[in-house]
Design a protein that fits this description.
The protein has about 475 residues and is of the alpha/beta class. The chain has 2 domains: about 5-240, Spore Coat Polysaccharide Biosynthesis Protein SpsA, Chain A (Alpha-Beta Complex), CATH 3.90.550.10; about 250-450, UDP N-Acetylglucosamine Acyltransferase, domain 1, CATH 2.160.10. Strands 14, 16, 17, 19, 20, 22, 23, 25, 26, 28, 30, 35 and 38 form a 13-stranded parallel β-sheet that branches. Strands 1, 4, 5, 6, 8, 9, 10, 11 and 12 form a 9-stranded mixed β-sheet that branches. A 7-stranded parallel β-sheet has the order 15-18-21-24-27-29-31, with no helix packed on it. Strand 4, helix 2 and strand 5 form a beta-alpha-beta unit. Helix 3 (about 85-95) packs across helix 6. The longest helix has 16 residues, at about 240-255.
């Protein structure tokens, strides 16, 4: 038995405005929910059974796994009275009912983008004798205060972790969401305190049991924990701008696998289309006249890319979407299923299912589910001081490494005509921004903003022209 446990129970409070209608582990990257991607990866790697630990927005996780379910899939609920990743893992182990035949346990956070080879390397470290192992990624310029961090010490027998600390001031690597535990390590998991103890002075951790704190306690007792440095990009979907990073990482992986054109028999490509590079075009899709399509690119079943649309390289277009009428889709974008990018619109970013952009809109950022963009809505992306926008996440000032000046439209939000968003604005779920508004600040969820206009009425007529 090679059990894997996927942790998908957290509330994802820092992921606003995309945490209101789903668990963030159910958020789609390249049109596949993250938790479904992880289940597919661990299953392909030979792990079974697979326990998915649920809690907040449980129904969204179950819906996301509808197409990948199987007899090897088990759901376990994390008790609300025991928050934190260590408690979630303990709930998953309990659901297994016994580990007599297991050589260890693989644990994966359900909100992370990792490569399957990195996942397998973490498991292999335990199979080679380590008591525990964790996948870690270099900070690459991120502040250590924004992550649970560690240092990586290289030895001839393999790297080990040291100086594990929650949101500390030092550290060279962050945890990437993949862990492997040998069975002798489980008593440490069961003895995890309800708060992370390995924090800097004044660190103020929440009252949650943290899996990385279990590893730090093992180190305190002289038990080495293997550190596996990720060989590929890893993204933890923690805040809205991480959507753009995750999208890029997944599309890069897909592009490496797309080495030649793959055209379904029922797809139609007009002779007047200009296609360069490898493309994958699924059943019933249409590539029409005057289209420019730069590969690598993916066009889903029944999608229509027609009438002069320009699609830059690395773009993923979902099933039954329409991209048409001289619109421009930027490099490395994802367009969801049943979306419309229409007449003269420009788009750069990630768009979820059934979002619409029309008539000369210029959108840069993330559009949630079924977002309706009014004509000529424009996203500002460049500040007069040429700086990046500082965001507030749960009251804390944060400077994203990427996507700081993008606009983030929450699920089911709408804009009227001629709306302008300033760089870095976030619009809450179920909110509307009325026509003609220049938006300078975040809009809370479930709000309607209307412009109050003052007018002046004067007498006017032929006499003003000398009659």
């Amino acid at each position: 038995m090679r059990p894997a446990i996927v942790l998908a129970a957290g509330a994802g409070r820092k992921f606003w405005p995309y945490n209101e209608v789903r668990n963030k582990c159910a958020f789609p990257i390249a049109n596949e929910p993250l938790v479904a991607r992880i289940v597919r990866q661990v299953r392909t790697a030979g792990f079974a059974p697979i326990v998915v630990v649920v809690g907040h927005q449980e129904r969204s996780i179950r819906a996301a796994l509808r197409t990948v379910g199987g007899s090897d899939l088990i759901f376990a609920r994390q008790p609300a009275s025991a928050p934190g990743t260590a408690a979630a893992l303990a709930a998953g182990i309990e659901a297994l009912g016994g580990l007599q035949e297991a050589t260890g346990i693989l644990a994966v956070y359900g909100d992370c983008v990792v490569r399957q080879s990195d996942l397998a390397a973490t498991w292999q470290a335990v199979q080679q004798g380590a008591s525990a192992a964790a996948l870690v990624a270099p900070l690459h310029g991120d502040r250590p205060q924004d992550w649970i961090v560690c240092r990586l010490r290289t030895r001839s027998a393999g790297a080990v972790l040291q100086d594990i600390e929650g949101h500390g001031r030092d550290g060279t690597h962050r945890f990437a969401g993949v862990f492997a535990l040998a069975l002798p390590a489980l008593p440490y998991l069961n003895a995890a305190p309800g708060v992370m103890t390995h924090v800097p002075v004044g660190g103020m951790p929440p009252v949650e049991s943290e899996l990385t704190d279990v590893l730090a306690t093992m180190q305190d007792d002289g038990i080495e924990v293997a550190g596996v440095e990720a060989a590929h990009p890893c993204v933890d979907l923690d805040k809205p701008w991480h959507i753009l990073q995750a999208n890029r990482a997944v599309l890069q992986e897909k592009a490496a696998a797309l080495t030649e054109c793959q055209i379904a028999p029922t797809a139609r490509i007009d002779d007047g289309a200009e296609i360069s590079g490898p493309v994958l075009v699924e059943d019933g899709a249409i590539i029409g006249k005057r289209v420019i399509l730069e590969g690598p690119a993916w066009v889903g079943a029944g999608a229509r890319v027609v009438n002069g649309a320009i699609v830059r390289q690395g773009t993923f277009i979902g099933a039954r979407s329409r991209v048409s009428d001289y619109c421009l889709v930027g490099e490395g974008c994802t367009i969801g299923n049943e979306c419309i990018v229409g007449h003269g619109a420009e788009f750069d970013g990630v768009m979820l299912d059934r979002a619409y952009i029309y008539h000369y809109s210029e959108i840069a950022g993330v559009l949630g589910m079924a977002v309706d963009i009014g004509a000529a809505t424009v996203c500002g992306t460049l500040r007069f001081d040429d700086a990046d926008t500082i965001h507030r996440i749960a009251g804390r000032r944060e400077l994203p490494g990427e996507g700081a000046n993008a606009t983030y439209f929450g699920d089911y939000s709408r804009t009227g005509v001629n709306v302008i968003t300033q760089p870095g604005v976030k619009i809450g779920a179920y909110s509307c921004v009325g026509p003609g508004i220049v938006l300078y600040a975040d809009v809370p969820s479930r709000k309607l903003l209307l412009l109050k206009q003052e007018t002046i009425a004067r007498d006017w007529g032929p006499e003003r022209y000398g009659w």
